[in-house]
Amino acid sequence: MTGRPGDPVVPAPPVLTDAQRTANSGVPPQAMPVPDRGPPVKFDHTGELSGFVNHSQHRVMYKNKMYPTAMHLLEAMKFTEHPKLQERIRKCTDVGDMYPLSASFQDHVRPDWGQVFLRTMEDVLYIKFKQHPSLRTLLLRTGLADIVYADANDAYWGHGPSGDGANELGKALIRVRDRLRAEGER
Asked: pLDDT (tens digit, 9 = 90+) per residue, 35-61?
């Protein structure tokens, strides 16, 4: 604002940092409130949330082919350069038989698998939850809570024997939930 000619020039008040405001007033600045995440949501192979495991009996359609489980699709994705191996995995009806079958093909795993498998797992889960509305609803109902795969035998995909495992499956589900929510899923 300009004053009249001859009025004294009054400088604008200085811009203070949070530390300066605290020092001047004795009251710390208010932090932005963090939404309550609530307790973690834990799941395993049993109960209402058992469909969250990647080998639950929820079929997944991918590139016009039906896979018996999301795990079948994930395992098939290891062999993108070998469609016949992918097809053998897809046609394996029992998830328990699929693991040794996939393991027998280890010499043919795509060279970048170590760099892409977590992102691929997330993409496969995303496909699964998009195709199964009841599972999608359960996932979105977890709100903002952390999601924990409560598997004491798996310290990578789950929380492991001491509860401090990597929980990569739970983290992937949180990312899928965030993607669904960003798309406006309810």
From this structure: 678 899 999 999 999 999 999 999 999
pTM of the model: 0.79
CATH number at residue 144: 1.10.357.40
List all residues 6 or more positions away from 179 whose beta carbon is below 8 Å from its beta carbon.
126
Give the model's pLDDT for residue 62.
Answer: 97
Q: Report how many domains make up the chain.
A: 1
User: Which positions of the chain have pLDDT values less than 50?
Assistant: 1-3, 10
Residue 16 lies in a domain: no
Phi, psi of 146 (to 5 degrees): -65, 150
Q: Structural domain of residue 53, as residue ranges?
A: 38-182
Cα gap 186→177, rounded to integer Å: 10
Q: Which of 61, 58, 108 is nearest to 83 (CA)?
A: 108
Q: What pairs with residue 49 in β-bridges?
A: none
Write down the pLDDT at residue 37: 80
Write the single-letter amino acid at 154.
D
